[in-house]
């Protein structure tokens, strides 16, 4: 952004990209530069900047506090919640990882999310492709059937689902949980990918069909590669949703050895709470928090577009 | 081209549709059916009892409390969350120094967008646990901060106080969702043509006028879908997780935080009253659909093209 004084009908060079960081002087300091009354502008500027800063602190501080606390001793946690740790105390991390079963929870979560993410993308894109590209009786009905799953309260279905799973011997198994995750991820995935497949040009697929490729082959070798951006967006969306899932495993997965990360942490909070092992608990929380936060910071742009793409449609 | 088309369609649909019907659609239908039975969930035997569960529900004080809290959440949470998010997004994208009729965000807007989004990538379970400890009356972050700034006498028993527990729950839900909407609205605001803002600026429009006359109308579709999304979240998994993890009981103290999805869960899996749980679930379904219908109706405006 330019800092030199130019007369009002300015060139548009600075106007591209709303998110660009303003490198000019602090607006609070020089409120009279606005085209309207300077005094009111300054007060408003200070106020609104203040609110932005306060919210940033409110978001970041609890997270920093958790990281800090995980390195402290239990006495220090109880006596002075605000002080910095004396030294980097990794003992609690080791305790949480092995004794408190965090390693098992991680492994279970990776298996469940890995399996259900692949399943969701494969099954979701198959259904979406057929719904977006083919005319057949019942097309609309199936589409709205999937769509309805987005807005119904899941808790209502979970009561009978528990017994359906029980009858199929899928309760308290990781593969059972994978199937349920896929089923509950399909409504949004199908909705999103149907819209995406509709935007793709049909000429390439038609050419492949004329060349003698089967419908299935056209889908896997021509359409899926073209749909990659959409698959990445919806994949990130589902990855976060499934990694962070709490309600489904809480109802359907109650045996200790098949618990996933979010449940395991709640378990940890209860058991470490009795033992008074606060540092162990915070180590567990931070351990679960950091990989996702790290991945978010690295893949920031993709994550944000993945999570907001659906809502903007 | 038509050769084998239907076989292909059927082949591609059978797995996803089968899984979806078995694990999602079928349980939904079953639960409505079960709400007219006396099924306990513990034994496979049950018989039809008509609307007995429904009359029982209308006399159930805990149900009314859950309903009341869920309605409160669905009214307050979208309003506060979307209000805050709109304000932040506007400041970040349009509220910056306005000189020479050039529209820009405030300083550090890129940082704000990244930081505000943090809670969105965390599991709601982690967020709830974190705040359970932050609100611990004896050695939590909040009361320690109050003490540090000299408010020794103000040491509320946050989650143990029936009057404060629900506001704490709401605050946690707001904390964890505002960032998502800031980013969502930012994306929407970025797609509004700059020329419109510049025209408003040249006409001497202030920030408030710009917001209410330009930004909000052009963003209305996004706000409306955000509203529905937030309402469903307030009635669904997120409120269940926060209340179940954070509050004593859970749902307490003295039923002051219980919400409909939690009561469904407790009736089914703690009290062994599966049929009654599905009845409360049907009430939850009615509330959810009514909410979505009302927002769609209230929010209906002429679509602005740009």
Automatic annotation (TrEMBL), chain A:
Comp. bias regions, Pro residues: 1-11
Compartments it resides in: Cell membrane
Pfam families according to UniProt: BPD_transp_1 (PF00528)
Region (Disordered): 1-39
Keywords associated with the record: Cell membrane, Membrane, Transmembrane, Transmembrane helix, Transport
Main location: membrane
Membrane topology category: Multi-pass membrane protein
Domain of life according to the entry: Bacteria
Record-linked InterPro entries: MetI-like (IPR000515), MetI-like_sf (IPR035906)
Domain ABC transmembrane type-1: 106-299
PROSITE patterns hit by this protein: ABC_TM1
Residue stretches spanning the membrane: 46-67, 105-129, 141-164, 176-197, 278-299
Family: Belongs to the binding-protein-dependent transport system permease family.
Protein name: Carbohydrate ABC transporter permease
Organism per entry: Streptomyces lichenis
Automatic annotation (TrEMBL), chain B:
Domain ABC transmembrane type-1: 67-295
A Pfam family: BPD_transp_1
Entry's localization field: Cell membrane
Primary subcellular site in the record, as a coarse category: membrane
Residues passing through the membrane, by range: 12-36, 71-94, 114-135, 164-185, 227-246, 274-296
Top-level taxon in the UniProt lineage: Bacteria
Topology in the lipid bilayer: Multi-pass membrane protein
Keyword terms: Cell membrane, Membrane, Transmembrane, Transmembrane helix, Transport
SUPFAM superfamilies associated with the record: MetI-like
Family according to the record: Belongs to the binding-protein-dependent transport system permease family.
Record protein name field: Sugar ABC transporter permease
Organism: Streptomyces lichenis
